[in-house]
Amino acid sequence: xxxxxxxxxxxxxxxxIEMEVERRLKERQSAAEKALEELRPLCEELxxxxxxxxxxxxxxxxxVTRCAHTFERESxxxxxxADPRINQFGEQIINCPICKxxxxxxxxxxDLAFKENIDHLKxxxxxxxxxxxxxxx
Length: 137
Ligand SMILES: [Zn+2]
Prior knowledge:
This protein has four helices and six strands; from the N terminus they run ααββαββββα. It is α+β, with helices and mostly antiparallel strands. Zinc ion is lined by residues 65, 67, 69, 96, 98-99, 101.
């Protein structure tokens, strides 16, 4: 009698598999929820370093001056037009709004690696907003 009872009470192999699958799913769901919570502050707001200090907009075409400061292309052009100066070589000169060192517009280059990093961050933020933040409201 006791042998029969113990057999009928023990779960079948199908039940054991189902319980194990459920346990693993809950474990993964919990890990995913923890990861999303840690990513939330990084995804909700882009870092200050991706903001052009002149226009206060996220960089679209970041350019590096001779003094190694980064500004949006249009901001540098607007700065030049606000105070147009040409040096002895015929180059258009601007002074860096941060350190005041002169740079000539013809020798300022796109920061392509920075641009790629910004685009990468924007994509992460966009995906997070689409799949996480928008689902909560
Ligand atoms: Zn500078």
